[in-house]
Amino acid sequence: MHSAELEQTGSAEAAGRAAVASARRVVVKVGSSSLTTPDGRIDSGRIRDLVEVLAARRTLGQEVILVSSGAVAAGMTPLGMARRPRDLASQQAAASVGQGLLLAAYTAELAERGLNAAQVLLTVEDMMRRVQHRNAQRTLRRLLDIGAVPVVNENDTVATHELRFGDNDRLAALVAHLMRADALILLSDVDALYDGNPSDPGSSVVSLVRGPGDLDGIDIGSSGRRGVGTGGMVTKVASARIATEAGVHTMLTSAANARAALAGERVGTLFAAGGGRRPSARQLWLAHATAGRGSLVLDPGAVEAVAREKASLLPAGVVRVTGEFSAGDPVDLCDEQGVVIARGLVNYDAAEVPDLMGRSTRWLARELGPSYERELVHRDDLVVL
Ligand SMILES: Nc1ncnc2c1ncn2[C@@H]1O[C@H](COP(=O)(O)OP(=O)(O)O)[C@@H](O)[C@H]1O
Ligand SMILES: N[C@@H](CCC(=O)OP(=O)(O)O)C(=O)O
User: Fold this and answer.
1) How many angstroms does the Cα of residue 228 sit away from the middle of ligand 1?
2) Which CATH class is domain 291-384?
3) pLDDT score, position 166
4) Model-level pTM?
5) What is residue 346's three-state secondary structure?
6) ipTM of the complex
7) Where are the domains of the chain?
8) What's 3-286's CATH class?
9) In the list 71, 85, 169, 341, which could disulfide-bond 95, CB 3.0-4.6 Å?
10) Burial annotation 193-205 (CB, 10 A radius, 16+ → b, else e)
11) β-pair partners for 377
12) Roughly how many angstroms between the first and final C-alpha of the chain, as a whole number?
């Protein structure tokens, strides 16, 4: 790197870290791996240390929302589970037992510092649907107004395989977006993003990520070391991408570095916020946090209409359908070469699509009834990739 470029990078990093330190509202996410002992119990010392840091930031006038994982991990020991269960129902049962224990630990530690803990359980749908989205926003705002500390987790009991965050990294990014936070702090068991496997002595810390280009060639692992966390670094990087696109500076470091990170000291990895237009939560979710449940292959005219003109996808432009999806599911929209050009929420079940493909909406309305005049994917539910 040339010295001018180095200087510019250094000042971008300093500005980002200063913005984190002076943030008015901050979302702090802590992962299971940072909250549990190696034998799978809640580590009360870690909870105490974290709460102490958060309480200190509150004293400085910062609004803090905590997104905490650890419910499944905390429920494992009481239920006699030696390792994280694989099936969803057992994970949900463990989360139900563990969430109570987790919140009790936060409540006790916050109360010692004169603060109220407020449990907030959210699902993907709450983030996507306008009414739930507004309700969650209103409640969280009120909690901050009355000086409580929201402790957010995914509502594991009702989340399904299809509509599930699974990790809390991306939920935290959407909460940061929902609450227009100024900074997002992702706390894990690793002190930063590394350019290779962090346990490999040849890997070094990446201290600044200005955009996706800075991640080229970096080996981002999908699993953690201790088998309690989910998603590894992949979901943290995805979370940082969602947050920075929403204009939120994101810092990734270890729970042990929480105080330093919140104070803007030079620890961890800073993902600098982008300055573009603020996308909707639904657009962010479709683009970064979900995979299509099937695909619709578009003819060249439909590719042009969707990708360039940002039009809705009509049945007339579809030549093939794959996968099993229901109305309301996310699907990939591909060109005839198989390149995914957009993702959107589909208005029909997969089984209905073959009878609609290639037909004009007018023909469909006349032959099948007026309800078939609707788009296959409405442009408000679609994001071009
Ligand atoms: N390039 C990388 N840089 C840093 N950590 C990585 C990288 N690739 C994979 N990891 C792993 O990701 C893990 C963190 O993910 P995870 O266990 O899901 O954490 P949490 O429970 O905090 O959400 C780290 O322990 C680390 O081993
Ligand atoms: N809602 C789940 C989160 C699952 C999880 O382990 O997430 P994370 O540790 O953030 O990768 C829980 O509380 O256990």
Assistant:
1) 11
2) mainly beta
3) 65
4) 0.85
5) strand
6) 0.93
7) 3-286, 291-384
8) alpha beta
9) 71
10) bbbeebeeeeeee
11) 313, 346
12) 30
